[in-house]
Amino acid sequence: MKNLITLLLVVFSLSLSTDMSAQKFGYVNTQELLQDLPSVKEANVNIDTYRNQLLKKGQEMLQGLQGKYVNLEQTRDNYSPVQLEAEVAKLKAEEQKIMEFEQNSQQQIIDKSETLLKPIRDKIQKAIDDVATENGYTYIFDFSTGFVLYADQSSDVSALVKAKLGI
Q1: How confident is the model at residue 148 (pLDDT cuts 50, 70, 90)?
Q2: N or C terminus: fewer CB in 10 A for the chain?
Q3: How far apart are CA 1 and CA 7, in angstroms?
Q4: Is residue 46 part of a domain?
């Protein structure tokens, strides 16, 4: 019985290695592709501009709130304790709105990034799919993620993908 299992394992290994020898592997460095694509650079500029606009608006809101706190501190003698408490509550509510704005801004930046970069990632994936199909590759690995332990330099299809992308 033990010999039968060993024989089956050997036969399975031989058939697996025969199948593997007929396959063609390639790899691509998607990080390099992303750095080289002008559309990525343009998208990053747009994202940075959007981020800076939101940051500026948030800073303006914060400065306005700080001014109101300073003003309230300077004029606190003009208020009764009940009025002072009401004014502080208003400022706390405004402070909460600023915090919500900051949280929403972060999500808006993520959404903007996804909106601008998803079509680019899809374009890269299509180019990789096309190169794999046109050149008979069974697998193409992303070298930039570190999942490739060994890659023959002649298997690098980055130049073909770049050509397909027009870069």
Answers
A1: low
A2: N
A3: 10
A4: yes
Structural domain contains residue 80: yes
What is the token pair recorded at 153? 């330099």
Residue 121 lies in a domain: yes
Q: Could you tell me if residue 86 is inside a domain?
A: yes
Amino acid code (one letter) for 152 = D
Task: Please tell me whether residue 28 adopts helix, strand or coil conformation.
Answer: strand
| 96 vs 82: CA distance, rounded Å | 21
Domain that holds residue 133: 23-165
The number of distinct structural domains making up the chain is 1
Q: Is the pTM of this model over 0.90?
A: no
Query: What kind and span of H or E run contains 5?
Result: helix 2-21
Question: How far is residue 84's CA from residue 73's CA, in Å, rounded to a whole number?
Answer: 10
Q: Tokens in use for 76?
A: 């606190």
The reported pLDDT for the residue numbered 139 is 86
Q: What is the CATH number of the domain that holds 89?
A: 3.30.910.20
**Cα dihedral sign, 132-136-138-140:** negative
The encoded tokens of residue 85 equal 């408490």
Under 8 Å between Cβ of 14 and 91: no
